[in-house]
Write the structure tokens for this entry.
Amino acid sequence: MKIKQKIVLLLFVVFFLPINNLLSQTTTTSLKDPQQVQIFLEATRRIRCICLPSLPIQACSFNMCTASSYLKTFIENRIKEGMSADDIVSKMEHGFGEEILNDSVVKHFTEEGNQGMVNSIVYGFGPKILATPDSTWINVTLLGIGVLGLILIYFYFQRWKPKTESSRAANQSSTSDTNEIKEKIRKWENSEE
């Protein structure tokens, strides 16, 4: 494959295949009703991840942020109670009040000693919980850095790749030079005997 074809293939793989992941929904829910699922997706798109503030909570996985995972369950509980996405987002910002202390997720945070999270749910996280800044530019920047790194790695290995024809010719000439020297040594040794 020619170098230009390899570069085009690399650019396709790096840029166009991940776009589907950027545009797709990246969260799971235990909700089954399609209307409730839409409310969940809308609410989690508008709330910021606790551990990775550049992402909406929708994009946080349990592996990345357990607190956000529990908050997703908390949001599911609110949806099951009949709250809308706007109500959930507003209450996340301004607080659900002390009547929410009986929720299973809030009880879990209390048992784990995470009083800061309990207070934030009861009294509100404030405007910083809103995922208003678009994280797309951060993701594109990271993607660009990754592509640049791959290109630099590619050129690094191309630089150290031996030249096939010239290296073969050099190996053959050095082998023939070695054979000539060995032959001269044999002749010299035979002549001395």
User: Anything to note?
Assistant: The mean pLDDT is 80. The helical segments are 3-23, 34-46, 66-80, 85-94, 104-111, 115-123, 136-160, 164-192. The CA atoms of residues 151 and 157 lie 10 Å apart. The two ends are 59 Å apart (CA to CA).
